[in-house]
Amino acid sequence: MTEPALLTRSTVRHPTWRGRLAPLVAAWRPLVAVAAMWTVALIAAGLLLTGPLADSGIVRTDLAIERWLAEHRSGALDALAEAGTWFSETFVVPVVLLVAIVAAWRKSTNVAAPLFLALAVAGEKLMYLIASVVVGRDRPPVPTVGTTYATSSFPSGHVASAITLYGGIALVVTARRSHAARRIALVIVGVVAAVVAVCRMYAGFHYLSDCIAGALTGVVWLTATYRLVFVPGWTGPAQASGRVRQPLPEVREGHSEAVGVRSRGGGTDAVGSGVGVGDGDRSHTTGQRAQR
């Protein structure tokens, strides 16, 4: 029978950069597929609202909400609306994103977290830009509060950015915390996105349907990047599939420790461990031996 083989710490290989990036490299094809399919669906929905459904109940409801909000404006509400949109303003999003990426890069041991944050926001922005240019929906026909840099109404890029940016940060921060903490963080993100949506509608920049489309875009893309990029890259392939390598026993100074392994029928079985103590006068070894 084969004698037990010894596995020491020196035989355990540390993951290389190529190994760390493998889950991320493998994710680009499904990511492109998700982005393409959702962009097509987004464009189709926008063209329906501006075409065959232009006189539908959905559009009439959009107009009624905008006119009601415009009729009930006040100085205090105007100030609150402008403050609420700051969470996702054009110059705020890249600054917050850059800070989050740098912090994630410095704190994490791989590129999963910073790459996830970058892809979550950049991908959403790309889909929003394509859809807004193709659909070209006009802004609501009411006076606006403040100014905006874009002229198209569908979808709401501010709402989508609120979800992908702050949702991505929340998922990274709570990656090693409990499920309850993650749910609480995501609820807070949902509240922030809702505040941004209401403020954009109040200011006369978006219809309700625009904000819903923006929210769905943010949720779909954040979920895709989280599942395809962050989870495999953060936990590694073995842990992501439920196969976690057990750590080797701790080795203290003056001790040598090893794990006995023997081959049986083509398999590998752990049969015990031996500990040798060298103090100059005596040595003591404990363990189990294979029965011949």
- Provide the β-strand percentage band: 5-15%
Biggest pleated-sheet summary: 3 strands, antiparallel
Number of domains: 2
- Unreliably modeled segments: 1-15, 236-292
Number of strands: 3
Q: Would you tell me the structural class of the helices and strands?
A: mainly alpha
Strand/helix succession: EHHHHHHHHHEE
Task: Tell the overall outline.
Answer: globular
3D architecture notes:
There is one protein chain. This protein has 292 residues and is mostly helical. It folds into two domains: 17-240; 254-292, no CATH class. Helices cover 59% and strands 8% of the residues. The protein contains nine helices and three strands; from the N terminus they run E-H-H-H-H-H-H-H-H-H-E-E. The protein has helices spanning 17-25, 28-50, 57-71, 75-84, 92-107, 112-135, 157-173, 179-202, 208-240; strands at residues 5-7, 255-264, 267-277. A three-stranded antiparallel β-sheet has the order 1-2-3, with no helix packed on it. It is globular and about 55 Å long. The chain starts with a strand and ends in a 15-residue tail after the last strand.
